[in-house]
Amino acid sequence: MARQGRTGGRRGRAQANALEKPSAPPYITRNIPPYELLGEVDLAQIESNADLILEEIGIDIKDDPDAIAVLVGAGATADAERVRFPRGMCRELIQKSAPAMFTQYARNPKNNVIIGGKHTVLVPAYGPPFVYSREGGRRYATIEDFRNFVKLAYMSPNLHHSGGTICEPVDLPVNKRHFDMVYSHIKYSDKAFMGSVTAPPRAEDSVAMAKLVFGDEFVEQNCVLVNLINANSPLTFDSVMFGALRVYASHNQATMVSPFIVAGAMSPVTVAAVAAQSLAEGLVGMAYAQIIRPGAPVIYGNFVSSMSMQSGAPTFGSPEASQVINIGASLARRLGVPFRSAGGFTSSKTADAQAAYEAANTMQHGLLAGVNFMLHTAGWLEGGLAMGYEKFVMDADQAGMMRVYAQGVDMSENGQALDAIREVGPGQHFLGSVHTQNNFKTAFYRSDIADNNSYEQWVEDGSLDAEQRAEKVYKKMLADYVPPPLEEAIDEALLDYIKQKKDSFEDSNIS
Amino acid sequence: MARQGRTGGRRGRAQANALEKPSAPPYITRNIPPYELLGEVDLAQIESNADLILEEIGIDIKDDPDAIAVLVGAGATADAERVRFPRGMCRELIQKSAPAMFTQYARNPKNNVIIGGKHTVLVPAYGPPFVYSREGGRRYATIEDFRNFVKLAYMSPNLHHSGGTICEPVDLPVNKRHFDMVYSHIKYSDKAFMGSVTAPPRAEDSVAMAKLVFGDEFVEQNCVLVNLINANSPLTFDSVMFGALRVYASHNQATMVSPFIVAGAMSPVTVAAVAAQSLAEGLVGMAYAQIIRPGAPVIYGNFVSSMSMQSGAPTFGSPEASQVINIGASLARRLGVPFRSAGGFTSSKTADAQAAYEAANTMQHGLLAGVNFMLHTAGWLEGGLAMGYEKFVMDADQAGMMRVYAQGVDMSENGQALDAIREVGPGQHFLGSVHTQNNFKTAFYRSDIADNNSYEQWVEDGSLDAEQRAEKVYKKMLADYVPPPLEEAIDEALLDYIKQKKDSFEDSNIS
Predict the structure, then answer these.
(1) CA nearest B55 in A: which residue?
(2) Which of B47, B409, B453 to mutate to test binding with chain A, by most A CBs within 10 Å of its CB?
(3) Is residue A349 part of a domain?
(4) CA of B56: how far to CAs of B87, B112, B132, B261, in Å?
(5) Structural domain contains residue A421
(6) I want to staple B329 with a disulfide (CB 3.0 to 4.6 A). Which of A54, A352, B290, B369 is the partner?
């Protein structure tokens, strides 16, 4: 199902001279089966419940009569802004034309990613208005932070994507910062990236800038942008998100339709209900994209948090959220579209043990569920309000562990290693055996962050905790950063476009 | 297969007046399927490789001619201390008589645990000679620490067992400290516990003390002690461990035969080889127990660490170790015995993010693999050299999350909650809905450690990280501790036994 790319003119040039990267592959290919928490009967029940929700209760589409008209034209019924769908209508639209798997092209073809099927793409966190570091504490994010995180993602061999709003550059005007974000992804990285969704014209700008890199025709025929379309749960879409979806789908770019649910507030508190409601919301968004342009890539997304009984705050890394992630992945496979979920979620304010337990719980369950696009893999702190420098490199290290687990078990003769056991025998050690010597370098994942030394050695090294060691790691990465080459003509074209557009309207911080 | 207990005389009295405990069940019953990393063909290959190892390479049994004679009598061949087994011999012995599932009785019957099948028992860490706390740093463990951790395990609703050598009381003589350890488990807790294995007479003392609590006949017919028998990998057992195994098996107590493998040192570096070697070692120990006393409970154990390429130190929470845990669980199910593995493993020296990532990775993979007895669930630090006070309560909190995940998904009408979605409808919130009100109290797992508050609230509360909050939690628990009632006659009988035995030989710290 993966589409094959054609190397366009500008794109071909942009991809020349790309730097060699460390040995990790550009995305994960899972040689392991998915973990299926629910069986056929329960999954069919949840699908039926989603259909019931769409048929009987319906969803609201706010301030977007065009979208309502188009959906009614495809078989839905509307009562003012409430739209209802006959059973199976959305599913049928999606299954008729949406690809099960597609390639997102990067300006360095070595970094193209396949989204869907047995593949998993690990992506930085998205959206935090704050940054956190040991050195600077918590403060508003700036465009310099944005560039820093793009650089860190570029240099992290186990992150496969540059992400989107890796943090909000709040030192720039709200209505113009998307230019600097998209430019930074292109300039400081050569991995695939995401477009702006905060207003339809900003989506158009994202597409226009991508065309300056990849060429007009290439963009219209291939996916170079993946874009996050959040539902306003429960059961509501608005003209901003549907407007951005329209822009991207009409240019054949990928839209990721993601209900954002804090269970108890935006949905019932129970897992089966969250799963059904989330599916209903996703079905509508993805079906709409297929009506706009049949065949435009869509991704079913799931973002679910449970809620603290004490404070009403969202909580992360919880067993309930892990269950919803698992069910969502099964539902996406049955529907036949890629699935986005999980990430290094936490409510913690620092990169402490809470942050790590919660992130690890979510990432491991996401991996085994078979998530295809793991937005928020690295950096997330404070329920998504802060992007952490130390947390980023810690999570990126965990990303490497996910890659190794997903490789599965080597059952070759070398993997079975009976000759090694024969050679060494009872009571002896394997350190010097031929098999160990031959396999040692690649046998185990190597962490940059973990300290496995003796207590005495650790004390001699300064008794640093993981956060302190991570601080050293990210600072060294930023110091060592070398930008990927970017053809001068493309760079100039991008800067010209940005200048012209920025000069054409006033700065605003309203929205 | 679970044996039903008969309430003996002393046991009946000891169990009277037991305190009411919080609402968590005494052990986990998994309503979720196990995750199977490998399929039939690969698992059969690993079983065949284990048979090949036993038939062709054999294992060494050191300084234990009796054990060799018994195994030869059952069909093995011996060349000095090297013992080889015909294909299938060990498996057949085990499958003929070992229970797939059994009950371990606690002195409070509410805390009896079922080991095997769909059940998971979460158990504190075992063996650390050091303790670590924020307050006291790292220092040698004492009997006071031992008592403290027994108390903490007793008070942790999601830990199901009191464990064994919860830490080494190094302030007591090596050859007498087992009396104080076993006594502490009985006196300060009423959960099930483990016996001493460091010398056969200490195993005899453990059984004798258990008989003072449960009655002679009850012990001979039911499991009241689970005991850890480590192989000296690769492929070696010694007379100490086999001697302890003989004592326990002959009294019908459970033995957990656990290869302890740092891959690269005690086995080849590859996952499939570790799995086959570990199975070979486990098969011999469990078969031996079945020869000693057919039907005595056995548990197949797996303790596997990968190795740091930089230092040779063991590493934890690694993807390779998680794979071995998964395969071990599948092999145990195929063999038909309970499985012990996983835990809150880490190489970290403190309860920092490294500790939490590594612990969470191992615990979640252990949970989904279907581990039945998770020794080392709580407290483990520094590769098992230190027991952490803060880490203990953090891990115990994670234990609660495992319980909730394992409950599975509520697919009842209340779980599906379609009426709630009907009631609330698009664009509204669920906070005040009837369904939310009815389910809110039990909907989500509540963590004692996580801080989900806003950044501002967190700062107002002192900007504490998870380790600092955990310090408060364990100190409050110890301050609030109330001992479970213990019949005076039993207490006196235990103290008499200990005094008499301790007076009968000199203190020694040699072994």
Answers:
(1) A422
(2) B409
(3) yes
(4) 9, 42, 45, 21
(5) no
(6) B369
Which of B:84-123 have CB within 8 Å of A?
Answer: none
The reply to whether A225 touches chain B by the CB within 8 Å rule is no
- Number of A:B CB contacts under 8 A? 406
State whether residue A244 is helix, strand or coil: helix
Instruction: Tell me the residue range of the domain where A364 lies.
Output: 22-408+445-506
Give the list of residues 6+ apart from residue B371 with CB closer than 8 angstroms, or none: B120, B325, B329, B339, B340, B341, B342
Q: How far off is chain B from A234, nearest CA to CA, in Å?
A: 5
A323–B409 C-beta distance less than 8 A: yes
The answer, for B358 touching chain A at a CB cutoff of 8 Å, is yes
Can you tell me the distance from the alpha carbon of B322 to that of A100, in angstroms, rounded to the nearest whole number? 30
pLDDT value of position B347: 97
Domain assignment present for residue B264? The answer is yes
Sign of CA dihedral A378, A383, A387, A388: negative
Which of A270, A277, A445 is facing B439, going by the closest CB pair? A270
Q: How far is A424 from chain B (nearest CA, A)?
A: 9
Domain count of the fold of chain B? 1
What CA–CA distance (Å, rounded) separates B224 from B14?
14
- The residue-averaged pLDDT of A55-63 equals 98
pLDDT digits (tens, 9 = 90+) for B340-364: 999 999 999 999 999 999 999 999 9
Angle at A14 between CA A13 and CA A16, to 5 degrees: 65
* Binary contact (B356, A361; C-beta < 8 A): no
pLDDT band, residue B114 (cuts 50/70/90): very high
Q: Which chain B residue's Cα is nearest to A351?
A: B353
**Mean pLDDT, rounded, for A53-61:** 98
**Is any Cβ of chain A less than 8 angstroms from the Cβ of B232?**
yes
Res A419: pLDDT: 96
Q: Report the distance separating Cα A358 and Cα A316, nearest Å.
A: 6
Which residues of chain B lie closer than 8 angstroms to A323, CB-CB?
Answer: 405, 409
One-letter identity of residue A162 = S
Q: Which two tokens stand for residue A86?
A: 């006959």
Nearest neighbour of B465 by CB, restricted to A263, A264, A350: A350
Banded model confidence at residue B311, pLDDT cuts 50, 70, 90: confident
Greatest extent of chain B over all pairs of C-alpha atoms, in Å: 79
Strand order in the sheet with B82-84: B77-79, B82-84, B59-62, B236-238
Distance from CA of B309 to the nearest CA of A (A): 7
- The larger pLDDT score, comparing residue A1 to residue B284, is at B284
CB within 8 Å: B436 and A268 = yes
Q: B276–A416: do the CB atoms touch at under 8 Å?
A: yes
Nearest by CB to residue A431, choosing from B264, B315, B422, is: B264
Query: Which residue's entry shows tokens 């054999």?
Result: B58
Listing DSSP states for B427-473 in one string gives: T--STTSHHHHHHHHHHS---SS---S-HHHHHHTT---HHHHHHHH
Question: How far is A265 from chain B, CA to nearest CA, in Å?
Answer: 5
Tokens of A79: 């009562």
User: Averaged over B218-246, what is the pLDDT?
Assistant: 97
Strand partners, A387: A131, A380
- Report yes or no on B131 lying in a domain: yes
Chain A residues with CB under 8 Å of B410 CB are 270-272
Chain B residues with beta carbon closer than 8 angstroms to that of A309? 440-441, 443-444, 446
User: In chain A, pLDDT over 90 holds for what percent of residues?
Assistant: 92
> Collapsing DSSP states into helix, strand and coil, what is residue B342?
coil
What distances in angstroms separate CA B79 from CA A19, B65, B232, one per listed residue? 60, 11, 19
- d(C-alpha A433, C-alpha A382), whole Å: 48
Question: pLDDT-based confidence at B3, cuts 50/70/90?
Answer: very low
- Which residue in the set B417, B425, B465 is minimally distant from A268, CB to CB? B417
Go through chain B and tell me how many residues it has: 511
